[in-house]
Design goal:
about 525 residues; alpha/beta; 8-stranded mixed sheet; 16 strands; about 15% strand; binds acetoacetyl-coenzyme A
Length: about 525
């Protein structure tokens, strides 16, 4: 007989199964909301580690004046550890499973919960990509099973995806959505598809960042700067992978690839190797970066040009090549910095600067100048509405290292942060992020979520200042289409094929967000 799901207000005792990064954050939020929390872990060491993480987070909140020491003591008093899963979950109104992303582990947990819990206890999984439906179908009363997907760090990120399967009772997802609101967070209600809204978009983008690093397109620090200084995202993709955990990211990608196929989810070999080596990111002290005594630095050797101290050139030959920043603007900025600018056919310059467009190859202009070894492309980028913050320096295979260093010194003199990238369509910022915007357009086109819901999910789940579709509208669908078309033509990778809906908006001059 079907059980009757509980209401949000009935959820007073919650069991959290698995006290890893996510489980400890979820337990903290629930205890801070006044609920009793029972936590279980596989062994004493794992439990001790999880509780230590939880206490450290509470201590940080006290240190920042967000919580009094007395409140902290009350929160701690609401949390108790149970020796085993069945004992811990027996009295719970809600169980949230947050064990590692392995189906056999989760099935085993749900099997035990099926026997131990009341039939009206809501069973939620924090899976980021596995089938909630398969878990629900494996137990009795599948109508009380749903996904409850929090984002890392759980105490901070405002989004929770509430995932309903075809078997979920409407009362179950309503109670969970109500609970999420009572925790001060925003629920986005979605159906059961691998990764839900955020992860197919986020993980494809993070994986692509690793591919760019592995291909030597740019350094890890420059890739991360493109996302933060270039787009305004709170973290770069490689730093974010270290935060999420490379092992978790790898298993999420594998689940996404099993569901959707295609090359966007094929894990970059470097990601797999780092995870296999146990270099899983912050929790291991090393991933793409090393984390030692509060300091963070790249775990791989940097591009030598970043270490090559150089003087800016005295005289620059500026060539126009369809740049977004007109050569006239560049000329006045460079001249204002006390550097002489000459235009073709003048000679005698130390550096040939190509005012570049991400849909056009710099090499052609460099060859036409007759001095390709002295030529560097320059493309200025910054978050929408703010001035340029980054100077993307585009090096061809003929550019001399000393010339790139001189261009970096020139960029620094203009007050811009120099990043270098190879001469490929999109250069760095667009090459990294336009495929991500295209993925968001594809999700709208597939009818899985609206443009507004996708934007909300990425803003609240990943701290984006604006959602990907609003970003796409602000850049303009026509510009994004042009760069993606060039990326697709140059790489032959179907992952970069522009979404038909993007091409339609570009043709009609319309926007995704109305
Ligand atoms: N636990 C608890 N609180 C934390 C925390 C943690 N691990 N990390 C940061 N905080 C708190 C800080 O205490 C601080 O709180 P107050 O404002 O109350 O003082 C606040 O968050 C801001 O922290 P910081 O000032 O130290 O750092 P910041 O401003 O650089 O923000 C960040 C840090 C919130 C992590 C921000 O960089 C961000 O939003 N990054 C994006 C994170 C993201 O994308 N998460 C989603 C990952 S995907 C996922 O989780 C799903 C999946 O299935 C893979």
């Amino acid at each position: 007989m079907a059980s009757i799901p509980l209401q949000q207000a009935d959820i007073r005792e919650v069991a959290v199964v698995g006290l890893g990064t996510m489980g400890s954050g979820i337990a903290e939020i629930l205890a801070r909301s006044g609920r009793s929390v029972v936590v279980t872990e596989v062994n004493h060491d794992a439990l001790a580690r999880g509780l230590a993480t939880l206490h450290a987070s509470l201590d940080k909140a006290v240190a920042r004046g967000r919580l009094t020491a007395a409140d902290k003591a009350m929160v701690v008093a609401r949390i108790r550890a149970a020796d085993n899963l069945a004992a811990g979950a027996a009295a719970a109104d809600l169980v949230i499973e947050a064990v590692p992303e392995r189906m056999e582990l989760k099935r085993a947990v749900f099997g035990e919960l099926d026997l131990a819990c009341r039939p009206d206890t809501i069973l939620a999984t924090n899976t980021s990509s596995l089938s909630v439906t398969a878990l629900a179908a494996s137990i009795r009363h599948p109508n009380r099973v749903a996904g409850l997907h929090f984002f890392n760090p759980a105490p901070v990120m405002k989004l929770v995806e509430v995932v309903s399967t075809v078997l979920t009772a409407p009362g179950t997802s309503e109670a969970l959505a109500g609970l999420v609101r009572a925790l001060g967070k925003t629920p986005v209600q979605v159906s059961d598809r691998a990764g839900f809204v955020v992860n197919p978009l986020l993980l494809a983008y993070l994986n692509h960042a690793v591919c760019l690093l592995e291909a030597g397109h740019a350094t890890s620090e420059d890739i991360d700067k493109a996302a933060t200084s270039g787009v305004g995202l709170p973290m770069g993709p490689l730093a974010l992978l270290d935060l999420i955990g490379l092992d978790t990211s790898l298993s999420t990608l594998e689940a996404l690839q099993a569901e959707f196929g295609g090359s966007r989810f094929t894990p970059a070999p470097l990601l797999r190797r780092l995870a296999e080596a146990g270099l899983t990111g912050r929790k291991a002290g090393r991933g793409f970066y090393e984390y030692q005594h509060q300091s963070v630095h790249a775990a791989r050797a940097d591009d030598p040009i970043h270490h090559a101290a150089s003087q800016p050139p005295a005289r620059v030959l500026l060539i126009e090549n369809g740049a977004a920043t007109p050569a006239a603007d560049l000329t006045s900025a460079i001249t204002a910095a006390g550097i002489e600018v000459v235009r073709p056919p003048a000679g005698g310059a130390d550096l040939v600067l190509v005012a570049a467009s991400p849909a056009r190859r710099v090499l052609d202009a460099a060859l036409a100048s007759g001095r390709p070894a002295d030529a560097v492309g320059i493309h200025l980028v910054g978050p929408h509405g703010a001035g340029p913050a980054l100077a993307e320096l585009i090096v061809t295979h003929l550019t001399k290292a000393s010339v790139t260093a001189a261009a970096a010194a020139l960029a620094a003199k203009l007050g811009l942060d120099p990043v270098t990238a190879r001469d490929r369509p999109g250069f760095l910022t667009a090459a990294l992020t336009y495929p991500h915007l295209n993925d968001a357009a594809t999700m709208v086109q597939d009818g899985y979520a609206t443009a507004a819901d996708i934007d909300t999910a990425m803003m609240l789940g990943c701290g984006y200042p604006r959602g990907p579709l609003e970003m796409l509208d602000d850049i303009s669908p026509a510009v994004v289409l042009r760069v993606l078309t060039a990326m697709h033509a140059s790489s032959g990778d179907p992952a970069f094929a522009p979404a038909p809906l993007l091409a339609e908006h570009a043709a009609a001059g319309t926007r995704f967000r109305g």
